[in-house]
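We were asked to recover a plausible sequence for a given structure. The inputs and outputs are reproduced exactly as logged, with field labels preserved.

PROBLEM: sequence recovery
POSITIONS: 213
GIVEN STRUCTURE:
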């Protein structure tokens, strides 16, 4: 098994938005996440107060990373990275070097200004990210189709643009949750320092029914 120290290096950049400049920064410590208010429109996954608590929890994990976009005092977007949930298939390999981009969200008034792409850009400035395979499971039932008015395929295109801006690319899988709908997909980025043994272990996770073919 690969042993990692999960070292984290902080980066920040400024992004002009029509509502004023945003700071995109991270990984941030739990205390910083407690300090800022949390935009009331960040409701894609759970009510804002609960999501802020969840982010604080992730930021405190050894491998957990939270990158935020914020105004002077309010968080308006975030992206999360952590090991796959123990209840998920992707955790079965017990891979220290597998991180899941679990959630990315930008409050509606700040969308389409490149905030999501900036969140990923700042995330991958940390060279330590090259030690990980980073995955994102795209399920259309998580997408804000109603709020954006996009079709499933238009939304899928947006997610591909966001993810590919940081080098996450579509990868094949026979995972039944992913194959349940053709717009769902698995995206992955293989860091430069990921050993071949981890790539192979991840391949076995991606194709669990291979024996049937
Ligand atoms: C998906 C989401 C994070 C995108 O955030 P964003 O900050 O608006 O994205 P960006 O501004 O960085 O846009 C990335 C690309 O998608 C395009 N895009 C974003 N929203 C779009 C829309 N509604 N219609 C058309 N194109 C859109 C942008 O123009 C940009 O394209 P480009 O690379 O050609 O310039 C945001 O819509 C959101 O929070 N949705 C709700 C939560 C969600 O669905 N999360 C994903 C599941 S985890």
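RECOVERED SEQUENCE:
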């Amino acid at each position: 098994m690969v042993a990692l120290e999960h070292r984290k290096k902080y980066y920040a950049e400024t992004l002009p938005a029509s509502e004023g400049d945003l700071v995109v920064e991270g990984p941030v410590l739990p205390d910083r996440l407690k300090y800022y208010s949390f935009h009331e429109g960040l409701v894609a996954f759970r009510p804002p107060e609960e999501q802020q608590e969840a982010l604080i929890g992730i930021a405190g994990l050894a491998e957990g990373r939270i990158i935020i976009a914020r105004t002077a005092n309010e968080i308006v977007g975030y992206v999360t990275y952590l090991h796959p949930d123990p209840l998920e298939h992707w955790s079965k390999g017990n891979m220290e070097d597998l991180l899941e981009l679990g959630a990315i969200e930008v409050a509606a008034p700040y969308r389409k200004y490149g905030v999501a792409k900036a969140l990923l850009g700042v995330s991958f400035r940390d060279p330590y990210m090259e030690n990980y395979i980073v995955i994102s499971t795209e399920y259309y039932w998580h997408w804000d189709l109603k709020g954006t008015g996009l079709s499933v395929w238009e939304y899928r295109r947006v997610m591909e643009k966001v993810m590919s801006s940081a080098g996450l690319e579509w990868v094949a899988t026979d995972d039944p949750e992913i194959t349940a709908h053709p717009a769902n997909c698995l995206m992955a980025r293989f860091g430069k320092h990921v050993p071949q043994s981890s790539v192979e272990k991840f391949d076995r996770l991606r194709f669990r029914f291979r024996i049937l073919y």
